[in-house]
Q: What sequence folds into this?
């Protein structure tokens, strides 16, 4: 018990520490970030990443490929 008393006297009374309010603010921010990340994951799972091929791009590519295959002359 005497060791705890000596440790308490070593603490500088002029030193500013965050205290309980700082811990509460940090905990609320951590919970907010956790909730935002959970929401983001839920929204990202709903997104479909499959792309539908553009029919205009297919016809344009085949015309260019046919034009490049034919010798000019």
A:
């Amino acid at each position: 018990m005497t060791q705890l008393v000596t440790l308490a006297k070593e603490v500088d009374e002029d030193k500013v520490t965050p205290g309980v309010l700082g811990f509460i603010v940090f905990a609320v921010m951590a919970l907010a970030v956790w909730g935002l990340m959970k929401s983001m994951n839920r929204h990202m799972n709903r997104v479909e990443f499959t792309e539908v091929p553009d029919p205009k791009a297919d016809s344009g590519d085949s015309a260019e490929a046919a034009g490049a295959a034919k010798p000019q002359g």
